[in-house]
Amino acid sequence: MQTKSLITIVLFFNILSIYIYSQEDKLTVEPKEIISKYISAIGGEENLRNVKDRTTIMRGTIMDQNITLVIKQKAPNKFRQEIKMAGMDQVLIFDGEKAIMKVADEKMEVPDEQIKQLKIESAMELLLNPDEYGVTFNYEGQENVNDRLCHILKLTTESGVSSKYYFDDETGLKVLEKKTAVTPMGSLDQTIEYSDYKEVSGIKFPHKLKQSFGPQSIEVTVSSIKINTNLSDDIFQISE
Questions:
Q1: φ, ψ at 236 (rounded to 5°)
Q2: What is the DSSP annotation of the chain?
Q3: Spatial CA neighbour of 140 closest among 106, 167, 122
Q4: N or C end of the chain: smaller count of CB under 10 Å?
Q5: Contact 49/128 with Cβ under 8 angstroms?
Q6: Which tens digits make up the pLDDT trace of 185-197?
Q7: pTM
Q8: CB atoms within 10 A of CB 142
């Protein structure tokens, strides 16, 4: 049961997903204004363009067990996630094309749909070139989240994967995300709440997250975010 519970912990790296759209996109004005306000709120386009790699460490508890997540990303779309809980380690590596998951000493197959999702969500250049990945978005109205008025944007990929992002009308920050994630155990609806934004290297990141998926939930606190530490390609290498 521990293994299954551990596997269902869905990727956290998408907490940092931001989309920048060119002025030539034939879209309604309001979504562009929301995205522009968000970009300004977290630090501006220039600072986002300067991010070449990022390492995030998060800690929390789930099922009364301590959990540590270490997420490493490198441009253009390399990704590595390590989860440590109750003496059992889980590692997911994506080299930009292929992916592998390891639980303890056991290798597990990564579904094709999850690989498609990884190609989109791990692409750091997605910040600058969303059209290259077939990303589209639509404005879906307003809703109150924790007594705060939020604007809702629905983002959809060419493969049909979609997410809903909720942006605080006053601050411009993303405060909630709803999506269906693909895992080795099948599709899983998840909700992620973001709060306690703090600046790191000129960019504001949420430092508290609460994620609900199925009957489980987890709260984590970001203990460290490091930008541009020259991560080696070796840590994203998939051995045969």
A1: -105, 5
A2: -HHHHHHTS---GGGG------TT----HHHHHHHHHHHHHHT-HHHHHT--EEEEEEEEEETTEEEEEEEEEETTTEEEEEEEETTEEEEEEE-SS-EEEEETTEEEPPPHHHHHHHHHHT-GGGGT-GGGGT-EEEEEEEEEETTEEEEEEEEE-TTS-EEEEEEETTT--EEEEEEEEEETTEEEEEEEEEEEEEEETTEEEEEEEEEEETTEEEEEEEEEEEE-----GGGG----
A3: 167
A4: C
A5: yes
A6: 666 788 999 999 9
A7: 0.82
A8: 12
Per-residue pLDDT tens digits for 17-47: 444 443 344 334 477 788 889 889 999 989 9
Ordered structural domains, the chain, with CATH = 2-224 (2.50.20)
Query: Tokens 């599709």 belong to which residue?
Result: 187
Structure tokens at 105: 């000493």
